[in-house]
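Section 5.1 Outputs to date
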Amino acid sequence: MGRKIRLRVNTAMLGHAAGSVVEIDAKEDGSPAELFWRRRLRDATRADGDGCVTVLPDLARSGTLPESEAETASGSD
């Protein structure tokens, strides 16, 4: 799986503190590969959702970061 999604965790969960950013694997259609994260996104985006996570834009693709910083931002550490 080459695709990744960056999420900001708004509510502490699964060992991640509120406010932390996680990078998770995504399927080819862009949805999270793991059921846990698919459910968190569904919870966050429902009309009465809890806002537990927020999808962050892909900075490397949006052109916000220079090419050299984009490699670091993509999680190749």
